[in-house]
Amino acid sequence: MSSERLAGKVAIVTGAASGFGRGIATKFAQEGAKVIVADLSEDAGKQVASELGGVFIRTDVTQKADWEAALALAIKEYGQLDIVVNNAGASYSNKATESVTEKEFDMVMNVNVKSIYLSTQVVVPYLLKENRPGNFIQIASTAGIRPRGGLAWYSASKGAAITATKALASEYGPKQIRFNAVSPVVGVTGMTNLFLGSTDISTFVATVPLGRPSTPADIANACCYLASDEASFITGVNLEVDGGRCV
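^ that's the sequence the OP posted. Answer follows.
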């Protein structure tokens, strides 16, 4: 039974058509939030929005105009915006760093870091103008805390997301705008083979003390807590949802 912890709140969730993003959007809707499903995948995104009673908008998170459109849609449909979940992410295949192309470098930095910059550039002025509290949640990664070879620039992008989250939390806390991050350990998603170079995650899971990969529900539950009023005094944290991997 839903406890309606997010009743009265409106959220934009990027990358919400699948994986962690879909799990987050579903949990938020179950807890009473109105959800803007923001994704590049139109068919899947529209399906998720329909299932959740939300609305879909095709969104390239690396484009400021798309962020402006998502904010405008939230205001048009629901009269406000309270929460932004920067979940959309990108990676290249695990490989020797000297083999990473400039295009791949730009991709992970734009999708994983520039998107956070753009979301704040667009949404923070709205919150300040309206004198509204706000809540940003970045989906980072344990790779940003405990990096290993083969994904150096992906790890760097997630490390940047964590550091930016902390800096923004410090800057905008006096305005009651909270910034937090969630760092999943690898899960079974469409990007798993990129992280590991294989769909067989058994070797990696052996390094997780709790003995399993992360699930969309794990990440959604963490995000729901951070988005709720229960976490009203929590800002600037990076919550590791990793089964003890980073201990």
